[in-house]
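Repro case for the chain-ordering regression, as requested:
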Amino acid sequence: ETGVTQTPRHLVMGMTNKKSLKCEQHLGHNAMYWYKQSAKKPLELMFVYSLEERVENNSVPSRFSPECPNSSHLFLHLHTLQPEDSALYLCASSQDRAGGGTDTQYFGPGTRLTVL
Amino acid sequence: EDKVVQSPLSLVVHEGDTVTLNCSYEVTNFRSLLWYKQEKKAPTFLFMLTSSGIEKKSGRLSSILDKKELFSILNITATQTGDSAVYLCAVVRGNTGKLIFGQGTTLQVKP
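-- result from build under test --
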């Protein structure tokens, strides 16, 4: 247990569905991240939130929409996804995004998403 | 363009062997280098390296960073089947805290 939880753990959805992934961290961290891990590819950073403000968006398609209502919760809203969006979506948190905090990110267990 | 390259991409050894995993990088404004172990789902943190030449050690695992030659190695001695996993190297870039991951090395340890 890393102190970062994600729900659901598995999700199957059609291309016309709307769903949301949830991440919660119990570590008192100030920064949270969404990553995508596709088969045989490196981890891809999608979004970074620091103190609830989005600070980096790595040119992710608009069908992925993040939301960070507070420093402990992070959502990824999904709509009209494509089959190539099927992947493992990982949430992570760190003490601080930059500066005086540590750089170590602690990952949740991930959500395995399948888009039919 | 920033990049992190790991080698080998996959490795099969027998229990008791010693392995060395490599990670080289070209990253603007390097801040630190992290090693993770990923078995089923989420990566688990192993080491964070910021200074050259200082070995970090945890049990049978150790790692060192060379900031002049821009690489790091992860050593595992007396390997066990439980060491089978994907080992990820990531570099933290400058003030953004952005993590750039390598492709990973898949290690399989046979009994």
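Ordering looks correct now. The mean pLDDT of chain A is 87.
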